[in-house]
Amino acid sequence: MRKTMKPINTASGLPAGILRLSDIDLAELEGKNTAIARILGTREVRQALANILPDVLNVFAGDRRIKKFIMKLVGNYLNRSLRRPEDVFERAELSPLFDDPQFIRNLADPLPDLINGLFDLLGAAVETMEKLDTEDKKEIFGDLISKISTGQTGDMITRVCRILNDIHKNDPEFFAKRLEPGFKNWIESIDFGDLKEMAENSAADVRAFVTMANNVMWQYPSKVVLLLSLIPTAVNMLSDALNISVNRLNELPPDLLTDVILSFIKEIETRPLAGLFNELAEIVRKVHTGSALLGEPGAPQLPKLLAAKIGDIIEKADTVTLWKAKIALAETKASFDQSVSEAVNRHPDLKNLCLIKAPELTNIRMKSLNQRLAYWDGLDDAELSASLADHINAYDIQEIGEAINNGLRIFNRLGEEKPDVFSGAVDQLVHSIDPYELSEAAKKLFSVGDAMKPLARSVVPGLVKWVADVLRPVDDEYEEDARQARDALASLFSQKEA
Hints:
The protein has 498 residues and is mainly α. Helices cover 78% and strands 0% of the residues.
């Protein structure tokens, strides 16, 4: 049985899609969807279209005469339409459009559809290409890359560099002078207070965004792991690239490579570097002075504030976990050092090389120290003594003495509270040392006595006289100890061999 379709009517009684003129909100459509038309109607755009249309129509016409004739007529008509006698070339028509808020709203209205449509086209094209065979994919991308990579960009960069070189040779500060008014207006037009307020007000939103992104990402842990696995890949790629580049650099002969590096160093200007160091030093000095001025007498403000901040951090930190992490890092470093030692020991040649070359580092440091001492030794007595006296006087001897006193008090308090600590530690140390090996080492050490005798004769007499002077009877609190020492020495010297 044949069915008939009933027309779908609207409330107005007309078929769907057909509206009476009275049903159309002309006020709403006034200017809406006409932003592109208004842009095309400006003199600047019409002039640009009039310049390119002949070439476009010529392409459409091809080689056939009838098409060329028709396109010529169309071109003449469009030229007459686009070029208007009432156009005033000194008056801008395009830029004023963007001062109209309604125009901006009308222009923004179709943009999402255009952008989404472009992405839809790209997505459909990529999806279709994904279904192709590998050879077809290679052919498409090969044609695309080969047609784009024509070297025009490099030629353009070269020409731009030549243009800039010509300009700078004639006027080294050309762009700075030309950009100064616009840059000044740009800086003056920016409200840095609003910029700071925007950054402060965005902090919560940025934190919320990071939280949201992490919450979403961690719903798929495998994707997070895959994302993190890109880090080793990137490191491998960077290392390989650096390896290739450095390898090519090492292909240069030593004199040429050194000459290149020396040329780089020579081109570095010392004046701005020295100025930078001076300015940084001045900043440090001003901060130190300002801290003293803002703080109480004898209590600068900066250390006080830093101490408070560090105290807050320590109070909120898990110190047990921090120490566990510190110990873990120390153990990891020890394991790393052990791994390096084991790797070196597996190669006797490398081990022997380390034993031979390691002292050279000490020799270099000693040579540098010796050169400094030789320079000081070359000064005259007055200058050397004045410099060393200033150096010694600069030390806070009182503070050093207080540090020693505090250390001794702590040591004595420990001995009084835990007297077995020292004896126990010494006992463990004595029992852990092999007496035979120590005896043999002492014999070998003192076997060089004859060689050391000239130095010993220059030191020991003075040392003995000083000890003897120290042990002379004096009426003080240490006299009893000194008397016991004198008796011990007298008993030692009075003994005769059997």
